[in-house]
Amino acid sequence: MAFEELEHTADVRMRISSPDLPSLFSESGFALAKTLYGPYHFEKPAYSFPIEAEGKDPEELMVNFLSELLFLFETEYLVPQKFTLSVGNSVSGTVEGVLFDRAKHAGGIGVKGISYSGLSLTKTETGYELIIIFDI
Amino acid sequence: MNSQIQQITKTEWEIPMGFVPGMRVPGRFFLSENLAKNIEDGALTQLANVATLPGIIRYSFGMPDIHWGYGFPIGGVAAFNAETGIISPGGVGFDINCGVRMITTPLHISDIPDMKGLIENLFDAVPTGVGSKSPIRLSQSDLLLMLEEGAKNAVDMGYGMAGDIHHCEENGAMKGALPEHVSKKARQRGIPQCGTLGSGNHFLEVQVIDDIVDEATAKTFGVSEGQICVMIHCGSRGLGHQVCTDHLQILESATKKYGIELPDRQLACAPLSSPEGEAYFGAMAASANYAWANRQIITHIVRELFVKKFGISYEDMPLIYDVAHNVAKWEEHDVDGVRQTVCVHRKGATRAFGPGRIEIPQEYRSCGQPVLIPGSMGTPSYLLAGTQGAMEKTFGSTCHGSGRVQSRSSAKKSQTGEEVAAALLKRGIIVRAPNQAAIAEEAPEVYKSSSEVVQTVHDAGISRIVARLRPLGVIKG
């Protein structure tokens, strides 16, 4: 698995690893979605939404990207299945998914915000690693 | 405990100046000697970091439920000077006006033979958990009115009684709300979520008053032993979360613009008198008002269910009180003998005004403000009263709950939701949640003992115990 939950007293702290930046952003999106919805199986996407975010540095870009996603999840009841992203000084692309279904996606917990607390996005020998806290 | 911390009394501790560079005042926190054994270093550093903020008055305070949070620790309280002070979303939290209210009923345990059925009915009636939708359809203009009028707006729409409004802190609506600073995105999140409980530590609990500690005050508050009550814990939902996210971005730039040096990016802030500070205050107040309306609508759903199920009258379920946990407010306090208007940040803390304050409803005023402290799932909740001690020591503040001690991930590893629910059922407590993980993550063992936290604020003199409430059934988001 490209992400794992780490210890944190009150919130959800995640470590996400990926070989390149676009996949780091996609995996982080899935980490957020699986926090919200619990584990879920892949389904053929039925809806597609554009997504864009900006930031002054990679960390801020990630926080803003995940905040945008959270907004999309909550207002469109979207459960993501596929991300197509290009990442540079900004991030843009699409997120495809299915509609929230209580029978399949009620295994998680609401996320209130994406935290800067203990945030790190680093380049490793094998790619990139993100440590991030979801405030719940 | 860190060796630099000084013990002042049995329940009071000080973080000295210099604990982190740039402290303007010392830190003060309230813990029993037993609770002090497990204080997190991260929470102490956060408490000290708050003490570096411009315009902070007297101390950076920590309540006994203190733990590591975002910017401020949870359980953090700080008052700021109107001219020189700042306002920070990190001192309020993502869930603006997360709070608690309690209604009483004329019922006793013997009137509810099927508690499981009642909890199922409540779970079906109150939208709960991720993906739940509002039972009402708000238009954009309805929402704008709600952001200005709070609980009153909900009552005007038919969700409650006129008397409810006066039993909310701030009469259920903070002055100074500026809906124009609540972004379109925040409003988009707010419309479908109004009247929903949310998830995480939010809950709706059926309780019985099982011990009265102060008979006279209990009588004044209108509660008696054996009475069935309902406690509701939730906040401003996605609307408040989005307001926090939006304004953190704005205030991050403002921090640089005004040359404020911060030890931690999460304390992003702006002078109270700056346009950015005023915009955040206005948006926060609007979100707080939304939260009061939200709790009011849920209260109405509960009352209607009880009317239908038990044949009791709607009017026989009065709101005892409603308190805010995550908020920054303008309040008058005596500072060095001079009455001043200061901005008090409470982040996972409760206002606990002492007897005589005009903010307290007249019928309660001689006793002090009712303070509601929810227990964790399965542990008692408490009704307390505010004290003069709180006015003198903590800008009229006390704890807000139990405070976590175990992480969600390790909670899930140690017990399954089914095991937690079965253990609670053995003690006569029924739990209902959308999924079992939500139950495991909120097991009673992951929190400090609510009784110990409440005893600490009682012993420290910053509030006093009036009654204890035992849980019978709970729905969790």
Q: How is this structure best described in words?
A:
The complex is a heterodimer of chains A (136) and B (477). Chain A is of the alpha+beta class. Chain A has one domain (3-135): Archease, Possible Chaperone, Chain: A, domain 1, CATH 3.55.10.10. Helices cover 29% and strands 44% of the residues of chain A. Chain A contains three helices and seven strands. Chain A has helices at residues 21-37, 58-76, 102-105, and strands at 3-6, 12-18, 47-54, 78-87, 90-99, 113-124, 127-135. In chain A, the strands form two sheets. A four-stranded antiparallel sheet of chain A has the order 1-2-7-6, with helices on one face. In chain A, strands 3-5-4 form a three-stranded antiparallel sheet, covered by helices on one side. In chain A, α1 crosses α2 (58-76). Chain A is globular and about 40 Å long. Chain B has 477 residues and is α+β, with helices and mostly antiparallel strands. Chain B has a single domain (6-405, 447-476), classed as tRNA-splicing ligase RtcB (Alpha-Beta Complex). Chain B is 33% helix and 23% strand. Chain B contains 15 helices and 19 strands. Chain B has helices at 33-36, 41-50, 115-125, 140-149, 151-156, 162-166, 184-193, 215-221, 237-257, 275-310, 388-393, 408-414, 417-426, 436-441, 450-459, and strands at 6-7, 12-15, 27-30, 60-67, 74-81, 86-87, 99-104, 203-212, 228-234, 270-271, 319-324, 326-335, 338-347, 350-351, 370-373, 381-385, 397-398, 430-432, 464-476. In chain B, the strands form four sheets. In chain B, strands 7, 8, 9, 11, 15, 16, 18 and 19 form an eight-stranded mixed sheet that branches. In chain B, a hairpin with a 2-residue loop joins β12 and β13. In chain B, α4 (140-149) crosses α10 and α7 (184-193) packs antiparallel against α9 (237-257). Chain B is globular and about 60 Å long. The two termini of chain B are 35 Å apart. Chain A binds chain B through residues 5-12, 36-38, 64, 67, 71, 74-75, 77, 100, 102, 105-110, 112-117, 135-136, and chain B through 40, 67-71, 74, 94-95, 129-131, 185, 188-189, 192-193, 198-200, 238, 241-242, 244-245, 249, 265-266, 404-410, 434-435, 437-438, 441, 477.
